[in-house]
Amino acid sequence: MESQTCIFCKIGKKEIPSKVIYEDSAHIAFLDIRPYTKGHTLVIPKKHYIQFLEIPKKEVSELFALAQEIGKKLKTSLKAELIFLSVMGEEVPHTHVHLIPYYGEMPFTMRHEPPDEDLDKILKEIKEYKEKK
């Protein structure tokens, strides 16, 4: 898949709307629209890489440092017990890091599609917490 047709590249270019938690010139982090849990976030490089093995060492270090920073904010703002991290690429062939809050009560067996209003509420909760700091 070329970057012109990649859904994550389009999100990075603001051609497709998303619930953005963080953005800089090289990365964007947004709520997953089919989350495993409340606050499930994707962190991606804006540059198109099919798998993380292709990313230059400096850039992969920046991606994971950012994922760690965002994970800490998710854990605190959403009162999660843990934040699981996974790098998968089976659905969208663009490197992305999953940050999955764990609240101690459920296994990860199914993804769900929450209403847009629920995603807005979660985004607001995260942003309000970040603004207090």
UniProtKB/TrEMBL annotation:
<feature type="short sequence motif" description="Histidine triad motif">
    <location>
        <begin position="94"/>
        <end position="98"/>
    </location>
</feature>
<dbReference type="InterPro" id="IPR001310">
    <property type="entry name" value="Histidine_triad_HIT"/>
</dbReference>
<dbReference type="Pfam" id="PF01230">
    <property type="entry name" value="HIT"/>
</dbReference>
<dbReference type="InterPro" id="IPR036265">
    <property type="entry name" value="HIT-like_sf"/>
</dbReference>
<feature type="active site" description="Tele-AMP-histidine intermediate">
    <location>
        <position position="96"/>
    </location>
</feature>
<dbReference type="GO" id="GO:0003824">
    <property type="term" value="F:catalytic activity"/>
</dbReference>
<protein>
    <submittedName>
        <fullName>HIT domain-containing protein</fullName>
    </submittedName>
</protein>
<feature type="domain" description="HIT">
    <location>
        <begin position="7"/>
        <end position="108"/>
    </location>
</feature>
<dbReference type="InterPro" id="IPR011146">
    <property type="entry name" value="HIT-like"/>
</dbReference>
<dbReference type="GO" id="GO:0009117">
    <property type="term" value="P:nucleotide metabolic process"/>
</dbReference>
